[in-house]
Amino acid sequence: MSRIGKRLINIPNQVTVSIKDQVFSVKGPKGELSKQIPFGIQVVQQNDHLVVERVAESLLARKLHGLCRTLVSNLVEGVFQGFERRLEIQGVGYRAQMDGKKLVLNIGFSHPVVIEPPTEIQLQVENNTNIVVKGIDKELVGKLAAQIRAVRPPEPYKGKGIRYVGENVKRKVGKAGKK
């Protein structure tokens, strides 16, 4: 039995859940999400809890049990609270700004880098060096945050670049001078 898969998922009061033809839908104060549940797994609602169960004992169903439970839990949490990912820019002259819905990054290239978020994702810039990515879909929030970081990942010698808040960047020692 999957240790993650057998945990119950609490359903908050403001969230409504529906399961129809292997499609799990959840609606809450922040929005609405749905996910296709793979064959061999079923989601059952018991009072104010959700239980993710295996119908088949195949190898694939055993592999997907914990994954499906986590995905369903993320859907419920997303429509209730939402997710956010914070990034910070380090480097002299590196900055970010919003141009309408678009994010404009000036990070040492000869041109500004423009990133347009999907419609479900909101971007905010705080004091020109902190970027906040918010949304109800954890996968999309993480994907967009990773795309922003990939534009200029932190380099190991001076640590300049875009990093997640709290990320520990391994630093290297520069080359030694002549003796």
From TrEMBL:
GO terms for cellular component: cytosolic large ribosomal subunit. Residues 11-82, 91-164 form the Large ribosomal subunit protein uL6 alpha-beta domain. GO terms for biological process: cytoplasmic translation. InterPro entries: Ribosomal_uL6-like, Ribosomal_uL6-like_a/b-dom_sf, Ribosomal_uL6_a/b-dom, Ribosomal_uL6_bac-type, Ribosomal_uL6_CS. It comes from the Eukaryota. PROSITE patterns: RIBOSOMAL_L6_1. The keyword Lipoprotein does not apply. One of its GO terms (molecular function) is structural constituent of ribosome. The keyword Ion transport does not apply. SUPFAM superfamilies: Ribosomal protein L6. Keywords: Plastid, Ribonucleoprotein, Ribosomal protein, RNA-binding, rRNA-binding. PANTHER family: 60S/50S RIBOSOMAL PROTEIN L6/L9, LARGE RIBOSOMAL SUBUNIT PROTEIN UL6M. Belongs to the universal ribosomal protein uL6 family. NCBIfam families: L6_bact (TIGR03654). This is Large ribosomal subunit protein uL6c. The lineage of its organism: Eukaryota, Glaucocystophyceae, Cyanophorales, Cyanophoraceae, Cyanophora.
